[in-house]
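Hi P.,

Sorry for the delay on this. The queue was packed all week, but I finally got your sequence through. Input first:
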Amino acid sequence: MHAALIDVEVLLNKLLIVAVLLMPLAVECFWLAATPSYREFWETKKADATFVITGGEDPSSSTDVWVCWQKSGFSVFTHGKESLFKGEVPRLDCTAPLSESVFALLQDEIRTIAEIAMVTFRDKKFWEDYYFVWDSYYSRRFQREVCAPEVVSLMETGVSHHDGQYHYWVWILGRNFIWQESTRVEVELEDLFMESPEREWFKVLAKVVKTDLRHMSTLSNILPIEKFDQFLITEEGLKILFQPYELTGFPPDSFAEVVVLWDLLSPFMKPGAPVTIWYEKQLQKR
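Then the structure:
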């Protein structure tokens, strides 16, 4: 019996020594997990097929992207929660002032969003976010559609999610820029076309959109069509974008698009405008 007690004592002493030796490592791991992190870096990656729209970047191609990555770290002040943020901007190498200006603008936007996300995470306004331990993820990603001296067009995709949500919340924006009078200008859809009381260009757009979408879903959520909020300038044509909630029959993490060919729209484009000049150059390449 005495020998058995001695063996137990020896075992406990060994365990105590191991625990003492591992304590600094455990403290260091906890400290790393609780410490907020912020990094900016470049990486080469393939387009993510999960969030690539048909007609966008080639999923098999490699793209250099600038990444802004942020982790809140958990603590008693965040009720054990942790927030992750990731922003991505592709390299815009159009060798023109427009691409440099757009890239700098999007970098500033991403940095501002990251800062706001951190502040919002630590100052929750809703009781369910405040009391329940829900980790959250938020990302903003830009994909290059067109990058030319006259025009830069990018698709902006936002994704947010926390453990209390049933699914990811996804939204999409079209960001279109021109270089006009030595200034970067973000254009609206109306800026591409000649002014007309009858808005013939819009009638052409609406007709093509209605025809295409009737094959995909119910249009009741957007009828009557009075405007298009999001669009992209592509080599094929003008790409009209719709959020998941705008159309029935689409999952909450997906969205619809309709491409209207430039051949249908070219008669209504503004003569001498940057987008028109870019389109005329595309015609010469055919």
